[in-house]
Amino acid sequence: MSKPRILVQLDPDAQASVFDAVVAVDAGVDHLLQYGRVSPDQVQGLVHGAIFTRGPQDLKNTAIFVGGSDVAAAEELVKRVLASFFGPLRVSVMMDASGANTTAAAAVLAASRHVPLQGATAVVLAATGPVGQRVVRLLAREGARVRVGSRTLPRAECVCEQVRQRVGSAVLEPVATAPESMAGVLTDASLVISAGAAGVTLLPAETWQACPTLRVAIDLNAVPPLGIAGVEATDKAVLRGEVTCYGAIGVGGAKMKIHGRAISRLFESNSQVFDAEEVYAIGRELQG
Amino acid sequence: MSKPRILVQLDPDAQASVFDAVVAVDAGVDHLLQYGRVSPDQVQGLVHGAIFTRGPQDLKNTAIFVGGSDVAAAEELVKRVLASFFGPLRVSVMMDASGANTTAAAAVLAASRHVPLQGATAVVLAATGPVGQRVVRLLAREGARVRVGSRTLPRAECVCEQVRQRVGSAVLEPVATAPESMAGVLTDASLVISAGAAGVTLLPAETWQACPTLRVAIDLNAVPPLGIAGVEATDKAVLRGEVTCYGAIGVGGAKMKIHGRAISRLFESNSQVFDAEEVYAIGRELQG
Amino acid sequence: MSKPRILVQLDPDAQASVFDAVVAVDAGVDHLLQYGRVSPDQVQGLVHGAIFTRGPQDLKNTAIFVGGSDVAAAEELVKRVLASFFGPLRVSVMMDASGANTTAAAAVLAASRHVPLQGATAVVLAATGPVGQRVVRLLAREGARVRVGSRTLPRAECVCEQVRQRVGSAVLEPVATAPESMAGVLTDASLVISAGAAGVTLLPAETWQACPTLRVAIDLNAVPPLGIAGVEATDKAVLRGEVTCYGAIGVGGAKMKIHGRAISRLFESNSQVFDAEEVYAIGRELQG
Helix, strand or coil for residue C214? Predict the structure, then answer.
């Protein structure tokens, strides 16, 4: 008889996320161990408790989820988790703070249903945040040429540099974005994805609607006004002119499915690490 | 197949209540998410995690319990919970900090088995506390004329005012109580309920035993000396002279049953809010 | 139908132990209530929640585990737990902070498979720590003559005094230990157990290998260099010359089995208290 599935939820926030907990339960976790306000120095002890309790053949029934709202803090926890393993004494780990990996994966998958990503010219707005950076990574791996947008060029260049370190083959171009210069930024683009914060319009409606090559526009901010004016948060493959549009709520269903499937996949072996790429691959399988 | 029942336990105390947790488990909750030291500003994020994870048809399988020992702090959390819902995106909520709602409901239900509440004259001692106020509310809704007792008249008046805001039809009379004046306060009363703190005698034994109209005396403090001298904490419908007496332990069994039933009722739909009145209605059904 | 098994995990550490949690789940606990950063003054409220919720016949399905890394802090919590019970209103309790009880029990049981403890001369090195003290206690109860070793004689004497208060029949001899004097300390001994901290060699290999009466050497430190040079952490009944050797990992399997069995035993009645002796007795049964 196999051991119960235990998920150790590590969260840097003061209270461990209810969102992450409910998704875990619905993904079939038997026992959820919630840890909030987790600091990096506490990780080793918690991880050792996870790897030194069950036999090697049962370790796949224990897994670690690192979530919460602070992606940078969560990434530090993941680094500590990985450093706490002892060779084969390890358990599978997923990072999805702020939904960054599942959101980026769902957005790129949505786009891929409407334009071939290989060779496409894609524009990512507000690419400096955790979701934006992951969208750039995933698009670059799929062979798109990505214009990496930020309101200041140095920040865009910094993201390009970071993505190139992970994706050697990436074809990236940093661009400084401002609403009035967006027509140029969109030249020849078939795809634009905006991952900006709430309430800042990055791309005027008339600009993208006048771009003859554009086929897909995705905005990942749920609170109006969106970064891409003219897209609605609830858009889910809504055709506006020639452009298929998605909003945050429109990609939310796929995002949730990917999240749940990824959690249940954690328990298939004890050596998986799910960051953006792995989560994206799971999403592709789900998409069939 | 229906989703597992998840109860989110929000507690302002430093450690989430074990009491509330055990009752939840015994009421059939599948997964309990315990949150202690919850501050009002943390509520929105936690509630959004509860309402944005499951589809509308499954939201009834998630619920929120607000408990702990501090009723005022819990009421503030409930207010924040309700303010965090988005129209139909909501889950059912129960408040029972300090057992205030279940205790008040059990006490008034016990009384109702021995005297018709409609038109009865009832005296509530130490009515200013959270249990006392709720007893006044429930009695007033049942049509009793309630003497609202406090050691200082202004505080009694304040409670009357608060109850009138909730129960427009309430017939209330504020009374300043002192042991030596209790004979007058009890005049024509058929029912007295004391909700005072530990160790203060509010009503001497000879006074209530000499009241010819009195039929029921209930004391909700478990630690002697009780507020109503001559009643024992373990009294459960014990007849002393002509008066049927209940102590805190005597109403405790019914209180626990009401608490458990209310928890399982939370999962019948996603839009319920259980405060004193709803908990009392559940208790009435249980009483048959 | 019996109630779900609830284990209340009380832990003085900032985060409740994952280790203790996984063992509890694998021992069949249905609902684990984890409490970290538990201070002594919080214990009464938590314990009252455990004992005032279920009826007397169901109390055996609730139990308390006190764990974490700090044995002294955990012992203080256990004292508060026991003081919070009301006669028959109690639940079973196990203490195993830092694995002290299960480790000591597993070590003494391992020794007992190779030498009769009754009448044996045993040496315990680093006997002043929580594991060492428990090893002394268990050996003394089994009728061994125990040399209680510490690097300073007064500390060794102090441990002897504490053990004598618990085990009236104990035959103990405090000894100041230094690597160069260990030949004398081992005279006539058939058994040596070291419970020292990481990285300090207490007993040179040539000394114990030259002791003609020695039959068993057990070192409970998992991180090299071990206290007993020449023993490996993974040794599990490894014969080195005439001496059967065990390291920390070698006794770890039995320790885990004892821990798990003890947790499931907690739920057999509501009045058990598991400290070293009770845990050892459970281990003896497991050993058959």
Answer: coil
Q: Which residues on A lie below 8 Å from B54 (Cβ)?
A: 22, 26
Angle at B76 between CA B72 and CA B80, to 5 degrees: 165
- C19 and A47 in contact by Cβ < 8 A? no
Task: Name the residue among A31, A35, A38 with its Cβ closest to that of C25.
Answer: A31
Measured between alpha carbons, how far is C150 from A110 in angstroms, rounded to an integer? 68
Query: Cβ contact (<8 Å) for A15 and B46?
Result: yes
Query: pLDDT truncated to tens, each residue of chain A (288 aa)?
Result: 689 999 999 999 999 999 999 999 999 999 999 999 999 999 999 999 999 999 999 999 999 999 999 999 999 999 999 999 999 999 999 999 999 999 999 999 999 999 999 999 999 999 999 999 999 999 999 999 999 999 999 999 999 999 999 999 999 999 999 999 999 999 999 999 999 877 789 999 999 999 999 999 999 998 888 899 999 999 999 999 999 999 999 999 999 999 999 999 999 999 999 999 999 999 999 987
- Which residues in chain A have Cβ-Cβ distances shorter than 8 Å to C20? 49
Distances from the Cα of C153 to the Cα of B43, C123, C137, C232, angstroms: 57, 14, 18, 28
The shortest CB-CB distance from C53 to any of B13, B23, B69 is to B23
Question: What CATH number has the domain spanning B102-251?
Answer: 3.40.50.720
What residues in A contact B30, CB-CB < 8 Å?
A: 25
Closest CB to B25 among C4, C47, C52: C4
Residues of chain C with CATH 3.40.50.720: 102-251
**Is the ipTM reported for this complex over the cut 0.90?**
yes
Q: Where does A6-95 sit in CATH, by number?
A: 3.40.50.10280
Interface of B with A (CB under 8 A): 3-4, 6, 8, 30-31, 33-35, 38, 42, 45-50, 52-54, 62
Within chain B, all domains assigned CATH 3.40.50.10280 are found at 6-95
Where would I find the beta strands (DSSP E) of chain A? 6-10, 31-35, 62-66, 92-95, 121-125, 145-150, 171-176, 191-194, 216-219, 236-240, 243-246, 273-274
